[in-house]
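Work Package 3 (structural annotation) set out to generate three-dimensional models for the target panel prioritized at the project kickoff. During this period the team completed the workflow that converts sequence records into discrete structure tokens, so that structures can be stored uniformly alongside our sequence database. As a representative example, we reproduce one entry of 514 residues exactly as it appears in the project archive.
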Amino acid sequence: MKKIYLFAFAAMAALQVQAQSATQDTYVGAALATEDLNGTARYVGMGGAMDALGADISTMGSNPAGIGLFRRGQVSASLSVVSQEEGKSFQDGSKTHVSFDQVGVVFSTRTGKTSYLNFGLNFHKNRNFNHVLFAERALNGSSQSTQTVIKDGLDLFDTPAWSQLDDLYYGNMLYDKTTEQIYSYEGNAYDFKRANTGYIGEFDLNISGNIKNRLYLGLTVGIHNVNYKNYSEYYETLNSASVTDVLISDNHKITGHGFNVKAGIIARPIEESPFRIGLSVSTPTFYRLTTENYTTIGGNVDRESAKEDFRFNTPWKFGLSLGHTINNNIALGAVYEYADYGSCDMRTIDGGYYDWYYDSYSERSSSDNNMKQHIEKTLKGVHTFKIGGEFRVDNNIALRLGYNYVSPMYQENGVRDQTIWSPGVYYASTTHYVNWKATNRITAGVGFSFDKFRLDLAYQYSTRKGDFYPFMKYLSVDYIVEETGAVEPLTNRCDAVSVKDNRHQIQASLTYTF
């Protein structure tokens, strides 16, 4: 049933029919800051627990000192097939896809009797965005459009907290400029579909070496390339005779680049023992990004894009690792990493300046303080544990196992708050969010050596659960009933829907030693 609410402040003007928007908020930042377990098949097969063991190209991106353990040059390339366990294909999103994961080379030069200076170059896909998400549930009277009505009642119209999605609803469904009244629609149920595609590619440049085969040092500069695409459809049925349903379709794209610097050290504290201890640190990744999208309501097909540039800094990351070999047949590794995602920094670009004398362009940016406070309340420190082992059956065959545990990034009561005075809300064209819980990864692998070549195969199973919300789980305002003048609360709430992100990955790497 359609209800009419008259709020106790000035009436508003009707707005545009179709909104163009983009967003840079806490949940987008969390997706950009997260990393997958990826690299060579040997690295993946051992669960990534090779930071102190070293001598694998993929350690270039975790503990750069691991490249210092190479004694010969090496080149490798990796390819995989990734399959999502649940759901089905939607738009450009597919349950199964082929992924080019890694290609790299290491050059090793002897500088002394037991010392080496090594150089490395490696590309790997540190984030694979491909994922299809479906969710549906009864709404019991709440609706996405009611959230806009409540924001209007909270005096958020024509402020940085009034989003482009609010414009869509307001101009098409909610406001009657003749009566100067706002209509709120009771929701019956919703059906949500989303397809993510794209990746973050990381190009690593490394210099490393060792001193008397006891101390290993390394430095890596990482250059990141972001290619993220998202298409979603939110369909809601309404308990109304005049408007029975509504469909919001949203296209979203983020592109850009960033860089970070990593440093590492590995030491053998006992000269007679192969036992090793590693320490690593990574600066934030400093991103410069462009986000753009268009959003339509119902059958409206007018597509007029808008772009917004912003900066985003991920947190510092610290690592401690252990490694040990036994009789050249067994290799054991363990890694602990910590990163405080509550310290992520979403930044607004304030302007730029071109220096004609030096032929250079510089840009000024500042923290979005309101969104920064929201990030601190919503995200938290993440602990990552990796363990893995390799057993060499003989000189030509090796077997591997690994396990990862990644603690939850999101606070238990995290909310994608749409009432914040921030560009991240002003440019928002969707309201949905997922609070993902802990991630568990189980890996296995096998390696075959043929003279100077090695073929590695790996399997990875990654699983995590999350709570999906189509909009803020609770929002309320007091309103004046037109007919009686009574003040009553208007409350909009929704319950979580449990969703999953379970993936299977089969990977192959070919390595040549020279």
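The helical segments are 26-33, 41-45, 144-153, 164-174, 369-378, 423-426.
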